[in-house]
Amino acid sequence: MTLAGLFPLLSQSTQHQGLLERLKLGQASEQAVLLDSALPYWIGALRNDLRAPILVLVPRPDKARRVYEDLLVWCGEDSEVYQLPEGEMLPFERLMANDATTHGRIRVLAALLKLDENKRQLPPIVVASLAAISQKTLSKETLQDACHYITVGQHVNLGNLMERWQRMGYRVERAVEIPGTVSRRGGILDIYSPGSQLPVRVEFVGDIIESVRFFDPASQRSVKPVQRVLILPAQAALPAFAPQEEVLELYSQLDTSNCTATTRERIKEEMTLLRAGHAPEEPGFYSGFFCRGTPLDFLHQDGLLV
Q: Residue 121: pLDDT above 80?
């Protein structure tokens, strides 16, 4: 149950209609004054009327969470409402990134680009804090290049597909149970894309995809067949998709004069791996080389920033 049925009441308001008309004319900015608690109601109605993606920017992470949860009440759990998570790492920190946070950010950016043709009922609403929006991420071009569909009847080399998924940041495991992992058993590939609620089992006959099925990661049993599914990258730092000239230029500007000889040698070895398209143990350390985009780049030109 949602409260979306109340949106038409606001749409009948003279003030709301006036604001809509000015926004449809493409004016650079407009101001509206409303109660704080009315923000989710107004955002939901605005999306229904404008039919455009909306990015809601708020000062703090706790405020972003509250607005996001209120929007779910108004719009519904499956109504293309997202919260952009705040990243937990800075470049040149040797820490392991939280995969759930990374996957959440990638999923939101893909939603803003409207890449998944299977779930386009309404444009997305994305709520983000200042911290979340200011953190660099993969570029829009990199995300578009990395994403692809798996379709029944498609001709594809199984080995090349596995290699591509590894370049997209997926880890090879014996069994797929969590997002960001893949496995292979003969002519069967399992992959858990960050954009899917369930992992997918892809069965081949030769180089032809015979079937694509969602399956339960706990029981490993098939849930339902589908014709196609979108595969998102599993990491934000994707060395294999980065412009090598740009990476070399950034590396040449790196000042390691205050580092020990051991540290300098380690950085050199890891950069050699990165330039070859292989990720080191702590890829987040080098995220500044590969995460050159900002979430604002993903908002469509017809989108609205609130």
A: no
- Please report the pLDDT score of residue 15 as a whole number: 84
86, 89, 91, 92: CA torsion to nearest 10: 170
CA distances (Å), origin 87, targets 105, 150, 194, 206: 8, 29, 16, 41
Q: Which two tokens stand for residue 3?
A: 């409260």
How far is 199 from 222, CA to CA, in rounded Å? 10
More confident residue, 274 or 140: 140
Higher per-residue pLDDT: 180 or 36? 180
pLDDT digit string, tens, across residues 201-256: 999 999 999 999 999 999 989 988 999 999 999 998 888 888 878 888 888 888 88
Q: CA 218, 222, 225: angle at the middle one, nearest 5?
A: 140
The answer to whether 306 and 57 have CB atoms below 8 angstroms apart is yes
| Residue 279, pLDDT above cutoff 80 | no
Cα dihedral: 211, 215, 219, 220 (round 10): 40
Neighbouring C-beta atoms of residue 64, cutoff 10 Å: 25
Q: 194 near 103, Cβ under 8 Å?
A: yes
Helix, strand, coil abundance in the chain, percent, nearest 5:
40, 20, 40
- Sign of the dihedral defined by the CA atoms of residues 252, 253, 259, 263, in that order: negative
Q: What letters, b where the CB count within 10 A reaches 16 and e where it falls short, cover 254-286?
A: eeeeeeeeeeeeebeebbeebbeeebbeebbbb
- Do residues 243 and 251 touch, judged by C-beta distance below 8 A? no
Q: How many CB atoms lie within 10 A of CB 174?
A: 9
Angle at 27 between CA 24 and CA 30, to 5 degrees: 95
Which pTM value belongs to this model?
A: 0.87
